[in-house]
Amino acid sequence: MSPYFLLTENTFHATYLVTDWLAEFGRKGSFQGVVLRDDPLPKAVRTARENFHRTYQGERSLDEDAWAHLYRLYPDLSETERTMIRDFGVPRHTVTQDPATVFLGRNLNSEAARKWLDTQCAGPDGPFFFVFLDRILAPWWIEMTGSRIINAHSAVLPHARGIFAIEQAALLRDPTLFRDAAGATAHFVDTGIDTGPVVRAMTFADPFAFESIWSCKGHSFMLAFDVLRAVTHDMVEGCDTTYAGVVPAPSPHGAPEFKRGAFTPERQAASEAAYAAMRAAAQKSTPSGFMKNPIGSS
C-alpha cells in the first residue's frame, strides 16, 4: 500500500483511536505516523498527560482527585468523554504517544498545512490519509492527495451528516431516523459535508439500549474507530485491491445535515431529554431482555 497517515484531533476521545491504532499498525510497513489538528503542545503537558494515562489505564471509576486532575489536563472534557471512561476505561496512551507526531496547526487549511501536504505528495507514490476530524478540509486536500482520504463519521450516512450528528438527530424525536442514524461510517472525503462515497457502515442492534445519549455517542465514537481501523487493515493487506466506495442513496429522512453552531448548551440538554424519552418508549414496546446487548451490526 502507499504510505499512509492517521490525521485526527487533539481530544480525549481521540486517545482511544490513537491507542488502538498504534497497537495495530505502530511504525510498521508504510504507516508514516500520527498527524494532529493542533499547535505543538509543551513538553510538560505531553508528559503530564502520558503519566495520567499510564497511571489510570483501564480504570473506569476515578475518584474526585483523579477527575480534577483529568480536567486540568483536558479542560474541554465532555460528558460523552466522561461516559466513555465509565464504559471503556482510560486509554493507555495520549494522542501524542508517537514521538514523531506531527502538529499541523489548528487550521488544517492554512498555507503552512498546504506546504506540508505538498511535500508529502511530491513523490510518485503519494500518501493516503485516514482521518477522524470535526473540521472540513479544503478542496486542495482532495486534489493534492488524488482523493486518497477516508474519514470516520460517528453516525450512519446518509441519515445524519455534520457535527454532533447523533445528539442532534435525537432532537428530532424520530425513533426510526435515530435507529437508522446511530452507528458509524467510513467514507471517502469529497467537497461536500459527509457526502463522499461510503466504504463501510455499521449500525447498533438497538441504539436505545444505552443508558444515555452520551453513552450512545461514546459507543458511536468507538464504532467509528473500529470501522476506520478495519478499512485500513483491509487496504494494507489487500495490496492489489482498494475500496471503490458507494454513493449512498438519498435518506428517506431527508439526510439532515447538522451544524456545530446549532448545538447550543440548551439543545444539548434537550438532546439528552429527547433520547431518554425515546428510550423509555422503546422499552415499553420491547419484550423484556431484548435490549440487553446494544452492540451489533447490519
Task: Give the tags.
9 strands; seven-stranded mixed sheet; globular; two-stranded parallel ribbon; alpha/beta; 298 residues
What would your notes on this structure say?
- There is one protein chain.
- With 298 residues, the chain is of the alpha/beta class.
- The chain has helices spanning 14-24, 43-56, 64-73, 79-88, 111-120, 139-145, 165-171, 175-181, 213-237, 265-284, and strands at residues 4-9, 31-37, 102-103, 128-132, 149-153, 161-162, 183-188, 198-203, 257-258.
- The strands form 2 sheets. A 7-stranded mixed β-sheet has the order 3-2-1-4-5-7-8, sandwiched between helices.
- The chain is globular and about 60 Å long.
- Residues 288-293 have low confidence and may be disordered.
Query: Number of DSSP helices?
Result: 10
The computed structural class is alpha/beta
The fraction of residues in strands falls at 5-15%
Q: Summarize the amount of helix as a percent range.
A: 40-55%
> How many strands in all?
9
Mean pLDDT: 91
Strands of the widest sheet, in order across it, are: 3-2-1-4-5-7-8
What is the CA-atom radius of gyration, in angstroms?
Answer: 19 Å
Main β-sheet description: 7 strands, mixed
**What is the H/E string?**
EHEHHHEHEHEEHHEEHEH
Low-confidence stretches: 288-293
Shape call? globular
N/C terminus separation: 28 Å
What is the compact description of this entry?
The protein is an alpha/beta fold and 298 residues long. The protein is built from 10 helices and 9 strands. The chain has a 7-stranded mixed β-sheet, sandwiched between helices.
